[in-house]
């Protein structure tokens, strides 16, 4: 809390700060004849996925970056998708590759992720990228976990020595944010669908990260007074994984949905793409 007031963690403010820092880097790259380029791959016609891809493309354009959009039909095979990814790996004008999740069920998503060259894995989805993140030296950690860490840093919320409870263990959110918090000297409990007495564990947390994919899953009476609540969920109707109003009563700081983690995730993706452009050149 700030002077007794609840601290609403405004993701737009964090994202704007990050983008401002990118402007000079992009300008210097362009002076060298290099325009950072993010290639997004959309398989199928899921409307939510299409919206996310469009948002990322628009964010690129607003910063003067290039967005290359690759659209494949829902009937695309794993082999065809991997072939398209390999083409982008070889394209020197492309600096970052993002495969929009989820892909149709018949596709081996893990095989497709692993086809992305580590130098262009700006969304942090490969096994090598995850391992580098675990050891604390990844250039491109998974974007939403990195966004969560950026929010905590921007608002100078302490992590070292705190007990963080992460609800969710997906390989691109729950697991990587757990290891990032651990590397920042938090004591971390990672919970999942088979965790016993989840509410009791959450009540012990100084930092709660909700990444479970269920609307209003985290209840207000689960939150320890003064805890920091990070809602990394997004469900239909602009609803997060946290019962916002109920959790706000006990939390000292909390992210709203959709203006919390989401904008910072996109800004992180742009930051990673610019970094990749600086490393790869044209």
Automatic annotation (TrEMBL):
InterPro entries noted in UniProt: Aminoacid_DH-like_N_sf, NAD(P)-bd_dom_sf, THF_DH/CycHdrlase, THF_DH/CycHdrlase_cat_dom, THF_DH/CycHdrlase_NAD-bd_dom
Keyword Magnesium set for record: no
Domain named Tetrahydrofolate dehydrogenase/cyclohydrolase catalytic: residues: 9-123
Record's catalysed reaction(s): (6R)-5,10-methenyltetrahydrofolate + H2O = (6R)-10-formyltetrahydrofolate + H(+); (6R)-5,10-methylene-5,6,7,8-tetrahydrofolate + NADP(+) = (6R)-5,10-methenyltetrahydrofolate + NADPH
Coiled coil: none
GO MF assignments: methenyltetrahydrofolate cyclohydrolase activity; methylenetetrahydrofolate dehydrogenase (NADP+) activity
UniProt entry keywords in alphabetical sequence: Amino-acid biosynthesis, Histidine biosynthesis, Hydrolase, Methionine biosynthesis, Multifunctional enzyme, NADP, One-carbon metabolism, Oxidoreductase, Purine biosynthesis
Protein function: Catalyzes the oxidation of 5,10-methylenetetrahydrofolate to 5,10-methenyltetrahydrofolate and then the hydrolysis of 5,10-methenyltetrahydrofolate to 10-formyltetrahydrofolate.
Protein name: Bifunctional protein FolD
Organism: Paenibacillus glycinis
């Amino acid at each position: 809390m700030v002077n007794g007031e609840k601290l609403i963690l405004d993701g737009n403010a964090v994202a704007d700060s990050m983008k401002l820092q990118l402007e000079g880097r992009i300008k210097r790259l362009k002076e060298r004849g290099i325009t950072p380029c993010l290639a997004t791959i959309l398989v199928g016609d899921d409307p939510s996925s299409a919206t996310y891809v469009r948002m990322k493309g628009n964010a690129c354009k607003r910063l003067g970056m290039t967005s290359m959009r690759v659209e494949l039909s829902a009937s695309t095979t794993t082999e065809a998708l991997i072939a398209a990814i390999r083409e982008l790996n070889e394209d020197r004008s492309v600096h970052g590759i993002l495969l929009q999740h989820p892909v149709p069920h018949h596709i081996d998503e893990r095989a497709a992720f692993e086809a992305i060259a580590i130098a262009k894995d700006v969304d942090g989805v490969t096994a090598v990228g995850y391992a580098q993140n675990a050891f604390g030296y990844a250039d491109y950690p998974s974007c939403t976990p990195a966004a969560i860490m950026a929010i905590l840093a921007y608002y100078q919320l302490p992590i070292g020595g705190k007990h963080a409870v992460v609800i969710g263990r997906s390989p691109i959110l729950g697991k990587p944010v757990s290891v990032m918090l651990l590397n920042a000297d938090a004591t971390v409990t990672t919970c999942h669908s088979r965790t016993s007495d989840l509410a009791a564990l959450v009540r012990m947390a100084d930092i709660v990260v909700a990444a479970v994919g269920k609307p209003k899953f985290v209840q207000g009476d689960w939150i320890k007074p003064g805890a920091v609540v990070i809602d990394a969920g997004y469900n239909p109707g602009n609803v997060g994984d946290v019962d916002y109003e109920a959790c706000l009563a006990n939390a000292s700081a909390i992210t709203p949905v959709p203006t919390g983690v989401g904008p910072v995730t996109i800004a992180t993706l742009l930051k990673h793409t610019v970094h990749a452009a600086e490393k790869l050149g044209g």
